[in-house]
Design a protein that fits this description.
323 residues, alpha/beta, D-Maltodextrin-Binding Protein, domain 2, 2 domains, ten-stranded mixed beta sheet, 10 strands, 41% helix, 19% strand, disordered N terminus
Length: 323
C-alpha cells in the first residue's frame, strides 16, 4: 500500500486509506447501469462517456441497460452494490422524484442509499403542437380549450413523469382541463403528435429539433427561463404568461451510499475531463440542444434538494399514486 507512513493516528490512517483507494481506482471493470433501453439519448451519452473513461482509466467501463419497473430494478441493484465506485447508476431527476413520491414500498431510499457523483448534461424541454392544431401559441391553446371544453388532449411520457406534471401545472394555472394521454416513450408520443392523435405535448428538445425544422410538429414554447439559441424566435413558456416556468431534465451519476468521498470526487473529475473535450461536447451535447453540466458532487446534492421541493409542490395537487 502506498500509505506506509500513515499510521500516526486513526484519523490520519483512515484519510490515507481513502486517498489510496482513489489513487487505485478503478481496480477492475466499472458498470454504468442505466434505466432505459439501448438507443436513446441517455443510453448514447452513457456509452460515449464510458468509452472515453475506458481509455482514460485503462479498465473496461460497460453500460448495462435495466429498464424494468420504471427504473426501480436498476436503482435497487446499484443501491445494493459494493460501495467502491465500480457500480454507478445513471438516471434523471424526474425519474428519481416520481418514484420516491408516487410509488409505495420502494426497495431503497433514494436519499439515504445513494451518493450523488455528478450531473453530466442538462436541457430544457419544449412545448410542441400537432400540425393539425388550430393554434400557434400557448395562449391560443388556452383560448381553444376554454371555447371547446373536452376537445383537446395532450401526451406525456407517463403518469407522474415531468412531462405530465409540468403540463398539468400549466393547465391548473390557466384554469382549464385537457385530456391526458400517457405514452411509454418519447418516440411514440411524437409520432402521435405529428399524426394529430394528440394536440400538444412537452417533450425533450433533441428529438423535436428536426421535426420542428421540417414542419412536422409546431414549436409552441421553449421551457427554459431564456430563449433557446437553436430556436431564437420561439417564445418561452414564461413569456407566454407563466412567469418562472421551467421544464427540463438532466442525466446524473450516483454511487452506492458509503462510497469513499475521494473515489466519488475522482469519478466526477474524470467525467468532467472527458465530456468537456470540444469534439465530444459538440457531437454528444450541444448539437442536441443540451448544456454541459459536469456538476461537482458538493453542488449536486443541494440542486436535488431544491428540485425535490419544487417537484413535490407541482405533484401534490394531482393526488397521484403509482403501484
Amino acid at each position: 500500500m502506498r500509505a506506509g507512513k500513515c499510521a500516526v493516528s486513526a484519523g490520519v490512517a483512515l484519510s490515507c486509506v481513502l486517498s489510496a483507494s482513489a489513487q487505485d481506482y478503478p481496480a477492475r471493470t466499472v458498470r454504468i447501469v442505466v434505466q432505459v433501453p439501448p438507443g436513446g439519448l441517455q443510453d448514447t451519452i452513457a456509452r460515449a462517456t464510458a468509452q472515453e473513461l475506458s481509455t482514460l482509466w485503462g479498465h473496461p467501463v460497460i453500460v448495462e441497460n435495466r429498464p424494468s419497473a420504471g427504473g426501480i430494478v436498476a436503482a435497487e441493484g446499484v443501491a445494493r452494490a459494493a460501495p467502491d465506485g465500480h457500480t454507478i447508476l445513471q438516471t434523471g431527476g424526474s425519474t428519481i422524484y416520481a418514484n420516491e413520491m408516487l410509488r409505495r414500498n420502494l426497495p431503497y431510499d433514494s436519499v439515504k442509499d445513494f451518493a450523488p457523483v455528478t450531473i453530466l448534461i442538462g436541457s430544457n424541454n419544449i412545448l410542441a403542437g400537432s400540425p393539425k392544431l388550430p393554434a400557434n401559441t400557448l395562449q391560443e391553446i388556452i383560448a381553444l380549450a376554454r371555447a371547446k371544453p373536452g376537445v383537446l388532449n395532450y401526451g406525456s411520457l407517463g403518469i407522474g413523469h415531468a412531462t405530465h406534471v409540468d403540463v398539468e401545472s400549466i393547465l391548473r394555472d390557466a384554469g382549464i382541463q385537457v385530456t391526458h394521454v400517457p405514452y411509454k416513450g418519447g418516440a411514440q408520443a411524437l409520432q402521435s403528435l405529428a399524426s394529430g392523435e394528440i394536440a400538444f405535448t412537452i417533450t425533450g428538445i433533441t428529438a423535436a429539433i428536426p421535426m420542428v425544422r421540417q414542419g412536422r410538429i409546431k414549436g409552441i414554447g421553449y421551457a427554459g427561463l431564456k430563449r433557446s439559441e437553436l430556436f431564437p424566435d420561439m417564445p418561452t413558456v414564461a413569456e407566454a404568461g407563466f412567469p418562472g416556468f421551467e421544464s427540463g431534465s438532466w442525466f446524473g451519476w450516483f454511487a452506492p451510499a458509503s462510497t469513499p468521498k475521494p473515489v466519488i470526487e475522482k469519478i466526477a473529475a474524470d467525467v468532467k475531463k472527458v465530456i468537456s473535450v470540444p469534439a465530444f461536447k459538440e457531437k454528444f451535447i450541444t448539437a442536441g440542444g443540451h448544456e454541459l453540466m459536469a456538476t461537482p458532487p458538493a453542488e449536486f446534492g443541494p440542486i436535488m434538494e431544491r428540485q425535490r421541493k419544487a417537484f413535490a409542490a407541482k405533484i401534490k395537487p394531482l393526488n397521484l399514486k403509482l403501484e
